[in-house]
């Protein structure tokens, strides 16, 4: 543990931030995983809604600084691309 007061405070702040970031990251990851499963399972109506929720979660994570905005954009792009391909039948 830190000997200096300011270092101890920084350690406490880091723990809080880590916990907060973990929530946003895992929420986004869960929706992405669910959307991919629905796309692979050819449940396109459910997948459309889940992709929308995944995009929302990714935007929120980027807004809060849990992930980089380009990281969120890349993941959203890949999800939308997969959904589009599943809907049109392209492989």
Structure description:
The protein has a domain at 25-40 and 47-91. The chain is built from 3 helices and no strands. The chain is mostly helical.
Q: How does the helix and strand content classify structurally?
A: mainly alpha
Query: What are the low-pLDDT stretches, counting only 5+ consecutive residues below 50?
Result: none
Question: Which series of helices and strands comes N to C?
Answer: HHH
- Rounded radius of gyration (Å): 18 Å
Q: Any key phrases for this structure?
A:
91 residues; mainly alpha; 0% strand
Short description:
The chain is an all-alpha fold and 91 residues long. The protein has helices at 5-40, 44-64, 69-88.
Task: Please outline the helices and strands.
Layout: H1 5-40, H2 44-64, H3 69-88
């Amino acid at each position: 543990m830190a000997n200096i007061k300011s270092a101890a405070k920084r350690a406490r702040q880091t723990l809080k931030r880590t916990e907060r970031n973990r929530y946003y990251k895992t929420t986004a990851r869960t929706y992405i995983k669910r959307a991919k499963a629905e796309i692979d399972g050819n449940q396109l109506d459910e997948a459309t809604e889940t992709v929308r929720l995944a995009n929302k979660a990714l935007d929120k994570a980027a807004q809060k600084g849990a992930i980089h905005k380009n990281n969120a954009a890349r993941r959203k792009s890949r999800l939308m691309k997969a959904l589009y391909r599943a809907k049109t039948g392209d492989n």
